[in-house]
Amino acid sequence: MKNPVPQVASLLLEKLLCLVHVRPLPAGSDGEPPPPAPGYYDTSCFKRGDLLEVPRTLFIHFGIYLGENRVAHLMPDILPAFTGDRRQIQQVVTNKRLILGVITKTASIRVDTVEDFAYGGSILVNHMDRLFEDQVLSSEEAARRAEKLVGATAYSLLWNNCEHFVTYCRYGAPVSFQTDKFCETVKMIIRDQRSVLASVLVGLASIVCLGLAPSTTLPTIFIPFFLWMAG
After folding, report:
1. pLDDT at site 40
2. Residue 177: other Cβ atoms inside 10 A
3. What is the pTM of this model?
4. Is 209 designated active site?
5. Beta strands in the chain (DSSP E)
6. d(Cα 207, Cα 192) in Å, to the nearest integer?
7. Among residues 18, 45, 162, 169, which one is catalytic?
């Protein structure tokens, strides 16, 4: 029978990467690929205060629609810690900016077009309402809460991510179901202390196969440390 520990450790690596919203870039690229052209999405079906949900392969990104093709959403970003220049900050967040934001726990609640926010993904509207039933605030209240929070903010993978932001705005309570799933995965792994060694081996293997990069090196360092601290 195969030892399940390496497979579980690999799953944790995948979960951690999806929580920080890392999107792989073409080799040698330092920025994000261009978003769809304006008009790619039909915004006439969106109403101010709607909760927009973009499912990805490994994660879900969330935002609050403000009207006029504008979406407020929380993104890890190191740049607001160094400059107040809105023109620089408003540029598309690259993976380097994003990962450094995760490490330093800095982020910004920013307003982007629907195209920049969704990046070609399909959009679900108010899909989470079914989970909160009578807790849904008025659409105008949700939009106003989002607008009030726009700007630099602290970031935490587990306690203050994009899902916490939108659930606070629309339902009045910051929660994250993605975080809950991640924590359940961690609980499963820390039952076996061999997971620490297994996660190190998985991380080293990913560095050998994929090269030395933030997306491979950082999880190799932080996942074993997190498991060791939790164990």
Report:
1. 81
2. 12
3. 0.68
4. no
5. 51-55, 60-67, 70-76, 106-113, 124-125, 151-154
6. 24
7. 162
